[in-house]
Amino acid sequence: QVQLVESGGGLVQPGGSLRLSCEASGINLGSYAVAWYRQVQGKQRDLVAYIGSGEQRNYADSVRGRFTISRDNTKNTVYLQMSSLKLDDTGVYYCSVLGHDYWGQGTQVTVSS
Which of 27, 40, 42, 111 has a beta carbon 3.0–4.6 Å from 91's, enabling a disulfide? Predict the structure, then answer.
């Protein structure tokens, strides 16, 4: 049974930083492309960043230069380092294995002064 568990969300002031984690069980994340999505209440989930199995990375224009996606295969975990956070970064962040219907439960990020 595949499980993805996100953690690391919280309340942060504009300009602050957070690191989200997506820890997996039942699947070797290192063999798959993994993505982070953000969902604002009432809106669709938007792709924020993904990392390929070959370590290629891509980012939404709105976060490029501020967010970094990475993975630690020894921990079977994918991270999203978020810096210079803005009010618009607020939302529930989900990780997902691309091409498979595997999702975590999400972690709330709130950027507010």
Answer: 40
Q: What is the token pair recorded at 71?
A: 């993975």
The pairs formed by 61-69 with CB atoms below 8 angstroms and a separation of 24 or more are 62/88, 63/89, 69/36
The whole-angstrom separation of Cα 64 and Cα 76 is 24
Specify the amino acid at residue 4.
L
Per-residue pLDDT in tens (0 to 9) along the chain, 113 residues: 999 999 999 999 999 999 999 999 999 999 999 999 999 988 999 999 999 988 899 999 999 999 999 999 999 999 999 999 999 999 999 999 998 989 999 999 999 99
By three-state DSSP, how is residue 112 classified? Answer: coil
Which amino acid is it at 48?
Answer: V
Partners of 17 in the β-ladder:
none
Cβ pair 37, 101 in contact under 8 A: no
Dihedral angle at the C-alpha atoms of 98, 80, 77, 92, nearest 10 degrees?
-70
One-letter amino acid of 97: V
